[in-house]
Design goal:
alpha/beta; 312 residues; 11 strands; 38% helix; 6-stranded mixed sheet
Length: 312
């Protein structure tokens, strides 16, 4: 359990000392800190710069573990900035990590094992990898991905799970799996078409594994904007984030839940879902505060933080 003390949703020591996130120093390949200038914001950085943030098995597990906790442990988080350390966002899967291929390598001592049994034994690993990235999508607060340099393979799988994506002009994207002899199986083929549509160009990128540019990503709607330069990327992300965290955290969290649910269900089912959620969410004190701001009674409101989630 994490103990925390908050004033108006911000860590109580925010103004008196450098804030320390409860998950700071909890992971080897992720840096998790409170944003130095934006209140209510947690900054998650992929932190294997020497490997261009290629994701090994440990880092993959850490992504799932981190995003299952962020925004749920009483940390005051209302929005998450996701970025990569070093020269690029993510170089894809770290193919030098043999753990990814355990159980499917044609090892001589396993040559007598039935292939169906090998397949049944390997499937849980794929599901575990999928679930780690799904934790980003299911995180109760919005995730804004700021992408620079290379965003390859698993990097695209990861940012497909973010709510908002922006990139720098030097960003290069590739759904690289087909060139490596496999179909992408961690979410890109399922999520990307729902993000941008089943266009001819999207299918071309998936089939060929060719690189596409920041301009291409903007054209198909994969990113919402391109920063003027790499140096301005985080500043551009901050502008979006500041508008998100200015709103009621209850309203934003319910909005994200409804968008995710409605994407995978019929309009009627989505309407029933938001009716159920809003029947309780509309009871929030945030509604009155937000109405007062909209009517010109003030410039901003202090919303209470989201509570720590109850767990066994």
């Amino acid at each position: 359990m994490y103990s925390s003390s908050f004033i108006h949703g911000r860590p109580a020591n925010y103004m008196t000392s450098k804030p320390k996130h409860p998950l700071d120093d909890s992971f080897s390949h992720l840096s998790i800190t409170y944003h130095p200038s934006q209140q209510y914001v947690t900054h998650v950085r992929l932190n294997r710069p020497g490997k261009r943030n290629a994701i090994n098995a440990q880092m993959w597990r850490e992504i799932g573990d981190a995003f299952r906790q962020l925004g749920t442990i009483g940390d005051g988080t209302r929005c998450i900035l996701l970025s990569g350390s070093g020269k690029g966002f993510c170089g894809g899967i770290d193919i030098s990590d043999s753990k990814f291929f355990a159980g499917i390598s044609p090892e001589e001592e396993e040559s007598s094992i039935d292939m169906a049994r090998k397949a049944l034994a390997f499937k849980p690993q794929i599901l575990q990898m999928q679930q780690a990235f799904t934790a980003v999508e299911e995180c109760p607060v919005p995730v804004v991905a700021a992408i620079h340099g290379a965003c390859i393979g698993a990097g695209i799988d990861l940012v497909c799970c973010a709510d908002v994506r922006i990139c720098s002009p030097n960003s290069v994207f590739s759904i690289r799996e087909a060139r490596l002899g496999l179909a992408a199986d961690v979410g890109t083929l399922q999520r990307l078409p729902k993000v941008v549509g089943f266009s001819s160009l999207v299918r071309q990128f998936c089939f060929t594994g060719e690189d596409f540019s920041a301009d291409d990503a903007l054209k198909i709607g994969f990113v919402s904007r391109i920063s003027s330069s790499e140096n301005q990327l985080i500043e551009e992300a901050n502008k979006i984030i500041s508008k998100i965290v200015a709103n009621s955290p209850v309203a934003v969290s319910v909005t994200k839940a409804s968008l995710n649910y409605s994407r995978d269900h019929t309009v009627r089912e989505g309407l029933d879902h938001i009716a159920t959620m809003n029947s309780s969410a509309l009871m929030s004190e945030d509604l009155v505060k937000s109405f007062m701001i909209s009517s010109g009674a003030g410039e901003s409101a202090e919303f209470a933080p989201l509570r720590q989630h109850s767990r066994l």
